[in-house]
Design a protein that fits this description.
With about 170 residues, this protein is of the alpha/beta class. The chain contains eight helices and seven strands. Strands 1, 2, 3, 4, 5, 6 and 7 form a seven-stranded mixed beta sheet that branches.
């Protein structure tokens, strides 16, 4: 992972639109804040959680830090988005942990992107419900690979959502 401003700058210089900082957000939150100042709009924070607690080092270590507690450390710092992954839902096609994801989105002003658990087009439709309108988006992996979600259908549904948000 990215652990220094120089590494972050190197990736951005190579053409990445945005870097995602995960473990370093727990271990060195000041670095995240410095990166946000140095590269406005280019830094997202990845928060991976199990049971509401943040996991680090590729999910190998649990921390005692709560998801919302960590996210709030970055309010006003210029973080472009929080990418929230519920480890228990990632890759198992059981659906997004809507309660935890929406609670996070409601708790901070930083845009939240749901990651982990997107299982079917029903999850895409769920994103159009009023309580989920605050979510910036969702990341799909396995559901796309397995053909459970048709990208064109998902985009059409989300385009309608975008039109109702403006």
């Amino acid at each position: 992972g990215n652990r220094t401003l120089a590494q972050i700058e190197d990736w951005l210089d190579r053409g990445l639109a945005r870097v995602i900082l995960g473990t370093v957000a727990v271990r060195d939150p000041d670095l995240v804040k410095q990166a946000c100042k140095a590269f406005p709009g280019k830094v997202a924070v990845g928060i991976d959680a199990k049971g509401g607690k943040v996991a680090v080092e590729g999910w190998a270590e649990a921390s005692s830090l709560g998801v919302i507690e960590l996210a709030r450390k970055f309010e006003g710092a210029g973080v472009a988005a929080i990418i929230y992954t519920d480890i228990d839902r990632d890759g198992v096609l059981t659906g997004i942990n809507w309660d935890a994801t929406i609670d996070l989105a409601d708790a901070v002003s930083i845009p939240v992107i749901a990651s982990g658990g997107l299982a079917s087009i029903a999850d895409i439709v769920r994103m159009t419900m009023p309580d989920a309108q605050k979510l910036e988006g969702a990341i799909s992996g396995r559901a796309l690979y397995d053909g459970r979600i048709d990208p064109a259908e998902a985009l059409a549904i989300l385009q309608g959502r975008a039109e109702t948000r403006t």
